[in-house]
Fold this protein.
Amino acid sequence: MSEHKTSGVRVAVARNPGCPAGLLERMIARESNEVFVALLRNPNVPAGWLEYMSMSSQAETRKAVAHNPGCPLGLLESLLLDWDSGVVRAAAGNPSLPPAVLAMWQLAHGST
């Protein structure tokens, strides 16, 4: 299924939280942008991949990293400072971001 000719099927595999990390890593190396973004949102993607991809020049890629529920706290905090507002909103909305960190960020940035 991870090599299915239809990208929609590969997106479904990429989004599946039960997909093994090894398969996700193999898919990351060869996928189209649509599937790639879905892969980066999967909580099983290794933290190293998230850290590497958070440095992408593509805001959509960084936003996918910020949406990932497995994104490490330090990386989420960095993404809260991104120049792209979509990336910042994704990081602020990540359920893994502790409420205290979000509250401090809101105070510092005048957000409510």
